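Structure (tokenized):
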């Protein structure tokens, strides 16, 4: 996904970190900066085992044709795995250790964070940790049958780290600085008075942007994660670079049965956190087994809590046990909700939200699907933990819509009409806010390559979490009811089978999942259910699920924001004749000359550097350059000049780059890239930015006083083409240069080049 940064006027200098230089080999960079450390290289092979890999060769999904038997070392435990959680956990650890190389994971870094037994077998979630610190979004989930055989596994891990956390004697000062940075970031993003905000440290994390987006070539950096609350329903999370104290990301989180419902009676809520608590701040208006209240909203929420709890109970999940809260008021662990809240500037409050502990409602918004939606956010929080960012956040929202609508469609309410089927919010003071059967009615995408996909270049919706939920919503509608869409004809599998399918999928996803991961998890979950014949699920049903996945294009990347591609020739039928070509498969090759800092990704790699150096557009190899010094630069140039003999002569190459000021919203840019030419054998060089480019360098809108360059993130391989026709008769050499920028000592600047050619187009 390619987007652009938008915040201007940011600090021009970064804090210099005094840490070890990267390890070097084969002309690797020798620069100032923190240590760039490789973790593990994904293992090739896996035929019949690995179902999905990313561009770097990492497995994202393992679905063996035949379940993998438990390793012999845990054979005795496997025999007891169906009934003993400790034995199931031991078998899961042995299984994940054996498949870890496919993910690029070190077995020693995988720590079980949760494990459950079910009628299907066992499921264990493993958290990737590096030096004892969790990796945000770095997880692998295993699903074992009752004999301990591995049926599926999915997840993603970070492959490298860059930098270190402050030493123990400096941690206090660093965290204090980071706390203030988190508050300031939320105040700026949320337009809230910083003096009214409270930041609570959730702990240190390694943060790898490549786990949360489709962007290649990332590395995990040390951050502090905060939860920031404030007036009313203000509830954000923020990440701050642990060593530099620089805010990187801030995002808005709003969005046995025992029930306790309280009435705020239009009280203005200040933080949406502890001051909304039902049972302490507000007295109970109706608790489990008590008579109805005189307040309609209290009774409605009480009933809708019951509907949602009954629904999840039918799926084998005790909702109260999973997400209930005990505030010490004598009511015990309960599903809790406070109704008729108001916020500064808004009464009645026209929304509802899950605050991480309980529900809160404005007046008149408590409908069955809205309640089911918000409580499902709690379920997601305690199962997959899907981050509320980018595609993971869109899936998070979609799951809440899906499960909320399932509650609505199965509770026998009076508004369960054909007209309201698959509509979200009907009957509330908000009205219908989304259509699951046709997301385009509200401008949302119904497939990955829809023109409605929201690229969210200004990070207005946490990367598109609400808008892009339409893809998952459309899939749920097609899976349940069937229909014709996007060239596919589906027979619906019905609500009963859909419910268990989506709930099993919800529990198996990892926190950084994208829609491709959702597709794989739906397939794996359906296969498991068909094997057990749960709710009559069959292989034929799973084929219909596959058609819905195909119809909604989950296996594809979004069309909006994809890297741009320059044509080879402009005229149909024209043929290209090469005068120069290099696909970077060996060095030296007599065609290029490089500075220290450029390496062949696969052939040489970088000792102690990113394994993603092997990223290649055509699969053989590419030239990789990394800069870790804000003031540094490295160049790669053609060894000899090329005579430009004809019109319609072009230079064209593919490249990918991570310069980070795109996704990290506070302008943390790490580099830029430019290209120059020389018409005097390399004695002098001139910038090509003003020449005739397709997908050439542009001026960064945040830094308009700087020359045009490639900046931000390509989101994958793009192609750029330079028209050389005006140089006819001249001999030209070319030079690609990567420049470090403000924060290259916090996050490395990466540039890959592949398939460069100078050629003439002719009929």
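Design, position by position:
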């Amino acid at each position: 996904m390619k987007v652009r940064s938008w915040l201007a006027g940011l600090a021009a200098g970064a804090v210099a970190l005094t840490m070890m230089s990267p390890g070097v080999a084969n002309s690797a960079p020798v620069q100032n900066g923190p240590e760039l450390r490789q973790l593990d290289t994904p293992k090739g092979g896996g035929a019949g085992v690995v179902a999905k890999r990313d561009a770097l060769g990492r497995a994202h999904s393992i679905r063996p044709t035949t379940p993998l038997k438990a390793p012999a070392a845990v054979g005795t435990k496997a025999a007891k795995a169906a009934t003993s959680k400790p034995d199931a956990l031991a078998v899961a650890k042995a299984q994940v250790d054996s498949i870890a190389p496919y993910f690029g994971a070190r077995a020693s870094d995988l720590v079980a964070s949760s494990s459950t037994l079910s009628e299907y077998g066992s499921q264990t979630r493993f958290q990737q940790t590096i030096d004892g610190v969790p990796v945000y979004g770095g997880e692998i989930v295993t699903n074992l049958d009752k004999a301990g055989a591995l049926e599926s596994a999915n997840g993603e891990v970070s492959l490298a780290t860059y930098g270190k956390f402050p030493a123990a004697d400096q941690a206090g000062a660093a965290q204090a600085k980071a706390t203030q940075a988190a508050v300031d970031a939320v105040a700026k993003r949320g337009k809230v008075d910083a003096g009214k905000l409270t930041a609570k440290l959730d702990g240190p994390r390694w943060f790898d942007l490549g786990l949360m987006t489709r962007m290649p070539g990332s590395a995990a950096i040390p951050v502090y994660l905060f939860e920031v609350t404030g007036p009313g329903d203000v509830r954000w999370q923020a990440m701050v670079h642990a060593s530099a104290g620089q805010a990187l990301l801030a995002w808005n989180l709003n969005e046995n049965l025992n029930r306790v419902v309280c009435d705020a009676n239009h009280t203005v809520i200040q933080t949406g956190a502890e001051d909304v608590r039902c049972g302490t701040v507000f007295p109970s208006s109706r608790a489990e087994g008590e008579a109805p209240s005189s307040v309609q909203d209290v009774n409605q929420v009480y009933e809708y809590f019951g509907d949602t709890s009954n629904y999840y109970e039918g799926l084998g999940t005790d909702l109260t046990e999973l997400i209930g809260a005990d505030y010490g008021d004598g009511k015990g662990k309960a599903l809790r909700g406070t109704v008729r809240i108001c916020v500064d500037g808004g009464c009645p409050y026209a929304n509802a939200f899950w605050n991480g502990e309980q529900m809160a409602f404005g007046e008149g918004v408590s409908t069955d699907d809205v309640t089911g939606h918000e409580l499902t956010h709690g379920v997601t929080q305690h199962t997959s933990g899907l981050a509320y960012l980018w595609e993971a956040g869109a899936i998070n929202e979609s799951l809440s819509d899906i499960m909320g609508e399932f509650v609505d469609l199965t509770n026998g309410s009076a508004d369960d009409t054909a007209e309201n089927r698959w509509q979200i919010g009907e009957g509330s003071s908000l009205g219908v806010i989304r259509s699951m059967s046709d997301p385009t009615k509200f401008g949302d995408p119904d497939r990955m390559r829809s023109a409605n996909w929201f690229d969210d270049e200004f990070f207005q919706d946490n990367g598109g979490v609400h808008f892009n939920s339409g893809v998952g919503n459309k899939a749920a509608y097609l899976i349940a009811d069937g229909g014709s869409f996007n060239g596919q004809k589906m027979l619906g599998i019905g609500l009963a089978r859909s419910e268990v399918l989506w709930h099993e999928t919800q529990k198996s996803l990892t926190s950084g999942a994208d829609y491709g991961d959702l597709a794989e998890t739906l397939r794996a979950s359906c296969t498991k259910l068909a094997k057990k014949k749960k709710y009559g699920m069959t292989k034929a049903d799973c084929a219909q699920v596959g058609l819905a996945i195909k119809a909604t294009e989950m296996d594809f990347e979004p069309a909006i924001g994809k890297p741009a591609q320059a044509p080879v020739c402009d005229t149909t039928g024209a043929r290209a004749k090469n005068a120069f070509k290099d696909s970077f498969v060996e060095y030296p090759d007599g065609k290029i000359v490089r500075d220290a800092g450029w390496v062949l990704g696969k052939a040489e790699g970088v000792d102690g550097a990113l394994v993603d150096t092997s990223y290649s557009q055509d699969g053989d190899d590419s030239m990789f350059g990394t800069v870790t010094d804000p003031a540094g630069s490295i160049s790669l140039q053609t060894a000899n000049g090329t005579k430009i003999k004809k019109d319609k002569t072009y230079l064209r190459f593919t490249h990918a780059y991570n310069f980070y000021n795109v996704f990290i919203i506070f302008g943390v840019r790490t580099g830029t890239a430019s290209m120059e030419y020389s018409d005097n054998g390399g004695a002098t060089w001139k910038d090509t930015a003003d020449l005739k480019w397709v997908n050439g360098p542009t001026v960064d809108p945040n830094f308009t006083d700087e020359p045009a360059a490639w900046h931000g993130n390509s989101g994958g391989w793009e192609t750029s083409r330079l028209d050389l026709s005006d140089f006819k008769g001249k001999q030209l050499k070319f030079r690609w240069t990567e420049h470090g920028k403000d924060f290259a000592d916090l996050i490395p600047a990466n540039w890959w080049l592949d398939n460069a050619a100078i050629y003439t187009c002719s009929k």
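Reviewer-requested clarification: The first strand starts at residue 36 and ends at 38. The chain has a mean pLDDT of 86.
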